[in-house]
Amino acid sequence: MRKQTIYQLNSLYRDNMKVTGYFYGKGEPALCIMGALRGDEIQQLYICSQLNKRLKQMEREGRICPGKEILVIPAANLYSINVGKRFWPSDNTDINRMFPGYALGETTQRIAAGIFEPIRHYKYGIHFCSSYTKGNYLPHVRIMHTGFEDISLAREFGLPYVIIREPKPYDTTTLNYNWQIWETAAFSVYTGGTERIDYVSAEKGVEAVLAFMTEQGILRNAGSFQEKSCILWERELSVIQCRQAGLLRTFVKTGNMVEKGELLAEIIDPYNGEVSEEITAPKKGRIFFQRDSSLVYAGAVVFKQI
């Protein structure tokens, strides 16, 4: 294992911010794994720490295939992690909306450029990321429909679902999209938590990446995918929104099977305690996403259903 500073942002008033990469094996740039690009992605940081732990042991045992290099970057936004902010503290910009970056631009543009330059030539790229909507997803792999995507590869993680997303204009500045433009086979892996660690889903994420590396001939005997993935377009998910603002009380969890018309949640008036809205399932199916917030606004996405 080699530890190396991938990018450094100098600071006048505090310690310089160093983005650290952990290299395993030697040879062609086979796989890059990116962790927390946002300051609240503690689950993603934890998963990368566990991958580092496992890969270090596998390297000692000679289980990394010859001629293959693996890079793990646990976190790229240490300032935000330190102060507990999701986005860049000084201007609230998102590094994952700045790729491929600009070396002479604003701070987050320079960070994105400094990170992207050394990782853009890897054959495979995996980003453990989080959603803009606070909540819990079923573990899944997400890929952008750019014309460069390989759906069959996404199945080799062995996670229950592969979600294909039609990119919107703002998606063109994400790490996943730009990796694909540079002909890296890129995948975004979502697990159950963000700010709080979900240890069960985190372990699934670790095992999925090790299984993928085994299938691609990067690791020897590190695992195999557990189940056949269901392929879904994002537009096929049923989005369930609330009509009223108020306090959210949910009765089901991510992964639950529900019947059409089943009560999923209530919106409670925060002043008088009365139920102002009942949210029911529009169809029979599985809860794919559940919002993790006690206070919701009118029109907020509360559930997504398969």
TrEMBL record:
Q: Which Pfam families does the entry mention?
A: AstE_AspA_cat
Which superkingdom heads the taxonomic lineage of this protein's source? Bacteria
The GO terms this record gives for MF are: hydrolase activity, acting on ester bonds; metal ion binding
Question: Mind listing the UniProt keywords for this protein, alphabetically?
Answer: Hydrolase, Metal-binding, Zinc
Q: Which cofactor does it need?
A: Zn(2+)
Looking up CDD domains in the UniProt record yields: M14_ASTE_ASPA-like
State the name under which the record lists this protein: Succinylglutamate desuccinylase/aspartoacylase family protein
Gene3D superfamilies in the cross-refs: Zn peptidases
- PANTHER family listed in its UniProt record: BLL3975 PROTEIN
Q: Which residues form the Succinylglutamate desuccinylase/Aspartoacylase catalytic domain?
A: 29-213
Q: Does the keyword Zinc apply?
A: yes
- Record-annotated membrane-spanning stretches: none
